[in-house]
Amino acid sequence: MLTAIACIVVGLVLLLWSANRFVEGAAASAHHFGMPALLIGMVVVGFGTSAPEMLVSGLSSYQGNPGIALGNAYGSNITNIALILGLTAVLAPITVHSRILRRELPILLIVSLLAVIQLWDGTITTLEAGVLIGVFALVMIWTVYQGMSDARDNLSNEFEQELGGNTLPLRRALFWLFFGLLLLIVSSRILVWGAVEISIALGVSDLVIGLTIIAAGTSLPELASSVIAARKGEHDIALGNVLGSNLFNTLAVVGIAGLINPIEVGPEVLQRDVLVMVALTLSLFVVGYGFRRPGRINRAEGTLLLLAYCAYTVMLIATAINH
After folding, report:
1. What is the rounded CA–CA span in Å between residue 21 and residue 41?
2. Do 111 and 244 touch, CB atoms closer than 8 A?
3. pLDDT for 50-78, tens place per residue?
């Protein structure tokens, strides 16, 4: 048990550190090769911050632990909206100026509803996983198109400011790109092993472990980047981190896990976890889209999101104790 706890702690620390180095190397490499700042921020950095979820869920599915795979993906989405955006808005209310993000909000809602449809029969088949990857590819193509055609968007300006000071030499950038990815893989294996051992020792499902410890841990890069961005007045980056991560999680992370092994899920995933995820996504759409004015997540709404996260976590713990 102590060894498993140590593996989770070490795995998470190494996972987060290597993810940061991987993102830094990837962003600097793309910058050296002339990639526009908006695309670096939305695609390269978005992929990098979701790399922990992808590797952890993919490895879990390969090892026959689908609960960790799904729990990590959907739990990270819940954590991103309720905990990260909630805490960020309490510290610094978020105003949404970016037209690109306003277009992404309904897409995220539709993608979340797609998850409901696929889980209705309790299985994510290889075909359904392929559909998720296909939709993910279309969303990425759309993102690239938006980035190229709307270069004056407020989000682009914020990414220009963030990436303008990146002076990492190309050779060092490539080193951290590949070495960071290698460390991500190693730390993911350590983390998954520890999570499986703890779920066995405590007698709780690997789904609950994935929804709580693993989801919160792999969401820490988004937490750090969103809070820092909001404190610097870069509100669109703060929200963009969460929207991009949730799209990656729902489509790519679950899709990759499902392609590796079809995923059988219990009814509680749809009736509890995905329902909470969709409700939070809908609330984010309502307050973030803005309709006739810029969207805004104020401190009161941030507090409600934090309370929702606390209530959901308490419900998961109560469920685990009762079983």
Report:
1. 15
2. no
3. 777 888 888 888 888 888 888 889 999 99
In this structure, is the dihedral angle defined by the CA atoms of residues 201, 206, 211 and 217, taken in order, positive or negative? positive
The pTM of the full predicted model, rounded to 2 decimals, is 0.86
Domains within the chain, CATH numbers bracketed = 2-322 (1.20.1420.30)
Which of 45, 18, 7 has its CA nearest to residue 185? 18
Distance CA 252, CA 137 (A): 9
Residues 6+ apart with CB under 8 A from 63: 192, 196
Q: Can you say whether the dihedral through the CA atoms of 209, 239, 92, 297 is positive or negative?
A: negative
Side-chain half-sphere CA neighbours of 262 within 13 A: 11
Strands (E), 69-138: 94-96, 123-124
Using a 10 angstrom Cβ sphere, with 0-12 exposed, 13-18 middle and 19 or more buried, the burial of residue 162 is: buried
Which residues lie across from 124 on neighbouring strands?
263
